[in-house]
Amino acid sequence: MSDKIWIVVLALVALVIGLLVLKPAAPPTTPEQPTPVEKPAQPPVEKPKEPEPETPKPIEQPKSPQQPSQPLTGPIKNPDTLIVADLSDIDTLDPHFAYDTSSGEIAFHVYDNLIMYDGPSTEKFLPMLATQVPSLDNGLIAENADGSVVIRFPLRQGVKFHNGNSFTAEDVAYSFHRVMLMDRSGGPSWLVLSPLLNVNTIADLAKQIEAQRTGKKADEIDFNAVSAETLVATCEQVEQAVRVVGNDVEFHLPKPFPPFMAIVAQSASWASIIDQQWATEQGAWDGSCNTWKAHYDPQKENDPIYAKMNGTGPFMLEKWDHATGDISLIRNDNYWRGPAKLARIVIKKVNEFSTRKLMLQNGDADIATINRKFVDQVDGTPGVRLIKGQLRMSLSFILFNQKITAEGNQYIGSGQLDGQGIPPDFFSDIDVRKGFNDAFDWETLIREAIKNEAEKARGPIPRGVQFFNSENPVYQLDLKKAEEHFKQAWGGQVWKTGFKLTAPYLVDDQASKTAFEILKRNLQRLNPKFELETVNLEWSALLSRSVDGTLPVYSAAWLEDYHDAHNWVFPIMHSQGNYATSMNLGTNYDALINQGINELNPEKRQEIYYELQKLAYEDAIAIFTDQPLGRHYQQRWVDGYYFNPIWPARNFYPLSKRLDAKPNMEYVNQLGLVVQEW
């Protein structure tokens, strides 16, 4: 990918349970608040007295679930190996390049981060490679007089990488420097650049510095033409943002960024810690400010650690078969938290459902990904355990493009409001958008397409994220109200002449297909002159059309990058956000969104995000359809399963295989999940 890809349609999240989806990529190259980054004059942070390193608490033994009528008698197939029958491709093994959940799942098990989530909690953290979670109370977060913030992480000693090299503070700094300077197209680097340097691309920072040096305007500067001095100065600012102080590492933020801990916690592959010496030996960036440009925005296969791994995590890479897509990991017996219970993890890419089903039936797969439309064929299989009800940090929605690209656009018919098409600004009329919302039937969608395993969405922030408003108003199916709005739309012309448009959706995306069929039926019931056609497109075609602005209306979804309300309202409502740009929403909500991310007071943040959710409803910016619930199918002999919605997928570290196996019932009950066994 040569350009920043900022629209990703994730409607398959509502279809495939456990499907590892491509993450939405970086937002446009303009920072949220484009101000030049300067090195702040910061007083030194007094290092607090170091307590004994905290060790993450062990996974507790589960309590017994309701037992099936027939106990397992064995034998257990491959007792030390966990085999997963999966659907998705792994894109890369470089954690700083990865921005998809299938690659993220591998990084999750091979690399460690500074901190990690506490069991199934999405709000609490435990130390990982750091010995403490920084806070104001323990003195590891300091706010300076100029508004900047310093966050210090004391680091664990005695940890080894898989190749035997010692883990050091320099490895931490190098890892964060590398992800910021690499900044591959469509990658995750913006997630680190934004809080640390107030830019969304390293090219933006370089152009700002070049503009200060030359007096030119930053937006008129070609990044590839900036001076060598500017490139060095850019790297030096990156180095100032993440600094080694003794055995600690400091992060210097120009302003507060409330969700920073989520940016660096385990599950964020871009914040994985790699071995600088090893990476350099493989041909990766050597850490010099004179050489970083040669490693900027690499092609995937040219990345020196594209197919290599060396972390501190509980598993080590054994083999990645590019021909089959299969990957195997082996246990790191020297893992600092203690070795995993399983000796090997094998993830097999199995496209055919019938094969995955057979593997699960025969015990040849311990865990299998099952498409929602096939669950009736798997439920009741002897020896299988189903755990369901996992709340996904994903929202599905139908987006309205308020300024459609008209040239050569086959989806808007005549391009006029003449009954044979729609004008490019058709959805800029709020009565059109409200009419579509009032014509939608959430109950039918969730029942028919999602088998009642989803919740109706209440706006741009999902349940489970802080500042979600459970009482935010929502639209209901109301054809009488829809008729009233359509009769007002475009001065009454919509009702009089009708309209015709085409809604594309992803091939095999049953949920999106059903959603548009619901709209089509109800629009026809309202007025026979209302014509909504549908067409399915391959992924690449749908992505291209969403980027070029030709889609008048389309189904999409967002899977969060980090667990904070800002990561929801920004992509959906901010003028520089992924989806807001495609909807051409303008800057109406920008000031309020920027205020929310810069506010530290939780009560004030709640007021801001409640207001944004209300505005999304009042302005009918989209049809927010559903928040999916998950299913997890495994053999009954798999022990210790639990779930955290922040993880890229599964956590193999606490799992084992035994005849009296159970999921971790403490966590299962805490999350309100349902366990069924056959």
Q: What this model shows, in words?
A:
The strands form five sheets. Strands 1, 8, 9, 10, 11, 12, 13, 14, 17, 18 and 21 form an eleven-stranded mixed β-sheet that branches. The model is unreliable at 1-64 (pLDDT under 50). The longest helix is centred in the last third of the chain and has 17 residues, at 510-526. The protein is globular and about 75 Å long. It has 20 helices and 21 strands. Among the domains are: 88-302, Dipeptide-binding Protein, domain 1; 394-627, Dipeptide-binding Protein, domain 3, CATH 3.10.105. With 678 residues, the protein is of the alpha+beta class. It holds the Pfam family SBP_bac_5. Residues 26-78 are annotated as: Disordered. This is Solute-binding protein family 5 domain-containing protein.
